[in-house]
Design goal:
membrane, transmembrane, Pectate Lyase C-like, 11-stranded parallel beta sheet, alpha/beta, 35 strands, elongated
Length: 700
């Protein structure tokens, strides 16, 4: 009893002494937070824990930066984009992902002021997102002409009306513009490519219900191809009344005050590149208009008196170049309603046409003017070759002159200033001429480059194919343009699978780019800091080793992604082959059933009846509808090698033998039945004897 008590007291003393030492060590090592932090920093280089902790802190900060990056909308239709604008309200921005195709079955509609639709990062070349119209009854891709849509903008996107695949809009009421804005202030379309509208124009800037549109900006865009060439054999005498829908289309149709259309490239706009509907105070400046693969009615038209009652005051057409490079432009700049019709009474007031250039070997009339008041036309230059022949659409009276550079009808012009060189002649409807194009003698000079050619040199071959297709003026039915500007990265045969793979690939590449940029910045900062050289030297090798490991993991993930894509493609191929095999097996089974049915008809012939081909034909007629006449009929051979091993004659003889020997086979069946019954009784008796013996043995 006593020794155990002493032992317990000794253990208690040792425990108390340990607690005292631990408490004393804690108090001495944690004097103040600042001292403890300094001690930790001093001990870090010796322990080697600081580089690891700093690296992981930097890694977590990089991951936070990557995760906080502004996302783009990868998978969306017009409904989801419209909902984003509705939810976002004024100032909402919908940023589309680069190199992505968005199929639209309806229009994207702006709903509030200062909203924006653009490609993430605002690229200017082939990386721009593509908005393609897919709805059969839809012509408009983007619409922003509401009363609340002030200062909405479309930037850095490709808008494809898909006219080559869907064709024209036969209903005039549905043949609206591809991009429709207006009715408000400060709206813009910038750095975009607008092509293949199904309606009457690529970009329509509306005046608004109260003529309130003002300050629209259309700049630095590529617009074309637009519309199809007018074919009298297919479209009739009047392109406006074509039963197939209106073939011609404008590039920009603007009816907005104090607006700007500048620094745009228009090509293959079959109606006119720019149509100005009065639009007082508007500047059309420094645009390049040329015809490559499709002819055009005009370059710039100022011929309408609506909706501002013929008021062109302050309208300036300046420093534009109109080039009939390889196709006809019937009128370079048309001023006055007589250029476009037989209206000799309407007068257009105000406006200036200054310093514009005419080029090309296929130009019709250069600058034509009539029915004007208080206009200024000066300092324009002409280097074009003017040609064209009159068509059946031209009027007999008055007889229009031959194509020339500068033409006006002086008696219809009042209080205006015109440069020297204009020829005075009476005319109406100048655009009735047809171009003269010799396919055997194409132009020898190089065509002007397209903006998307300059931005994406690797796509020259594809654009050349598009140019050949556009030159026919007919929509393609067998081929389709590439899905994205950058081409297909994955082609598994399933759009959903392709989108998923491209989504994961792009996210991975974005993360790698962000990490690389951030690491470069941090590396430059570490090298530029004047800290201890030993710590920087200790930090760099470890960070580089970790980054190398991270890079190897990324490469491994990329390799796995490609392997998964290949596996998906192989799986799709295997499923297709399995479907083919299943179909062939079903066909084989069907053939077997037909053969069995045919041979059963042979086996049911009576014994005393000879093999009658006519009777067989009659039975076949009742069963399968084969005519009974003696004419020759081609019947599919449904035979199978395993069944046709015995001929039809042998099968018929076997059936007759079975019927003739019916009595013998009946007696033999009775004998067999007796033998089988006796065998069963014998087996049962033997089993019973064996069971009794086994039971008796167990009892003993």
């Amino acid at each position: 009893m006593l020794p155990s008590t002493v032992a317990q007291q000794g253990d208690l003393a040792r425990i108390l002494s340990k607690r005292k030492r631990r408490r004393a060590h804690t108090c001495s090592s944690s004097s103040t937070p600042q001292e403890s932090q300094e001690n930790a920093w001093k001990s870090a280089p010796t322990s080697g824990a600081m580089p690891h902790s700093l690296f992981f802190a930097l890694l977590f900060s990089l991951l936070a930066i990557v995760s906080a990056a502004q996302p783009c909308v990868r998978f969306a239709d017009y409904d989801s984009i419209n909902q984003m604008f509705i939810d976002g309200g004024p100032g909402a921005k919908v940023l589309l992902c680069p190199n992505r195709l968005y199929r639209l079955s309806g229009p994207i509609v702006f709903t509030a002021a200062d909203q924006e639709l653009a490609t993430y990062g605002y690229p200017t070349g082939a990386e721009r997102a593509v908005l393609r119209v897919e709805g059969r009854d839809s012509a408009t891709a983007i619409q922003g002409d509401c009363r609340r849509c002030a200062r909405v903008s479309v930037k850095n996107v490709v808008v494809d009306g898909n006219r080559k695949k869907l064709g024209r809009m036969k209903d005039v009421g549905l043949a609206t513009g591809l991009v429709v804005l207006g009715g408000n202030e400060g709206q813009s379309v910038q750095e975009s490519w607008i092509k293949h509208p199904r309606g009457f124009t690529a970009i329509h800037i509306r005046e608004g219900d109260k003529l309130q549109c003002t300050g629209a900006v259309i700049e630095k865009n590529e617009i074309g191809p637009v519309g199809e060439e007018f074919d009298p054999e297919k479209d009739g005498d009047d392109p406006e009344m074509s039963p197939l829908g209106r073939p011609l289309a404008d590039g920009v149709s603007i009816a907005c005050r104090d607006s700007f259309v500048r620094d745009n490239t228009f090509y293959d706009n079959t109606d006119a590149a720019v149509v100005v509907y009065c639009s007082p105070g508007t500047l059309i400046h420094a645009n390049h208009i040329f015809a490559r693969g499709l002819s055009a009615m005009a370059g710039i038209l100022l011929v309408d008196s609506t909706p501002f009652d013929g008021d062109y005051s302050g309208v300036v057409i300046k420093s534009n170049i109109i080039d009939a490079a390889s196709r006809t432009i019937r009128v370079g700049i048309g001023i006055g309603p007589t250029v476009w019709s037989d209206d000799t009474e309407t007068i257009l007031t105000g406006g200036s046409v200054i310093g514009n250039g005419l080029k090309g070997r296929y130009m019709g009339y250069g600058i034509a003017a009539a029915g004007l008041k208080k206009w200024t036309v000066k300092d324009n230059w002409d280097e074009a070759k003017h040609e064209g022949r009159k068509s059946a659409r031209c009027f007999d009276e008055p007889e229009n002159p031959d194509p020339m550079g500068l033409l006006y009808n002086a008696p219809t012009i009042e209080d205006s200033t015109f440069q020297v060189g204009f020829a005075d002649h009476d005319f109406q409807y100048l655009v009735c001429i047809d171009g003269i194009y010799d396919k055997s003698n194409p132009p020898k000079h190089d065509l002007p480059p397209l903006p998307h050619d300059l931005g994406s040199p690797s796509e020259n071959e594809r654009d050349a194919e598009d140019e050949v297709d556009d030159s026919t003026g007919e929509p393609e039915s067998g081929t389709e343009e590439p899905e994205t500007a950058g081409g297909h990265m994955f082609a598994t045969g399933s759009d959903m699978m392709d989108d998923i793979l491209e989504h994961s690939h792009q996210r991975m590449m974005e993360a790698i780019d962000h990490l690389n940029r951030r690491v470069d910045v941090l590396g430059s900062k570490v090298q530029s800091e004047g800290g201890e050289p030993g710590s920087a030297a200790a930090l760099d090798p470890q960070m580089s080793s970790h980054l190398e490991k991270l890079q190897r993991r990324m490469e491994h993930l990329q390799f796995n992604q490609k392997a998964h894509a290949e596996a998906a493609n192989q799986l799709r191929t295997a499923i297709q082959s399995w479907d083919t095999e299943t179909a062939s097996v079903m066909d084989w089974q069907y053939d077997i059933l037909l053969d069995v049915r045919h041979k059963l008809e042979l086996s049911i012939q009576p014994a005393d009846q000879a093999f009658d081909l006519d009777a067989l034909r009659e039975a076949s007629f009742r069963a399968g509808g084969i005519p009974e006449d003696d004419s020759v009929h081609q019947v599919d051979d449904h035979s199978h090698p395993g069944i046709e091993g015995e001929s039809l004659r042998q099968l018929s003889h076997r059936a007759r033998y079975g019927v003739d020997g019916g009595d013998e086979w009946t007696l033999l069946g009775v004998v067999k039945l007796i033998l089988v019954s006796a065998s069963v009784l014998a087996v049962g008796w033997a089993a019973r004897r064996w069971r009794k013996r086994s039971t008796h043995g167990k009892l003993l």
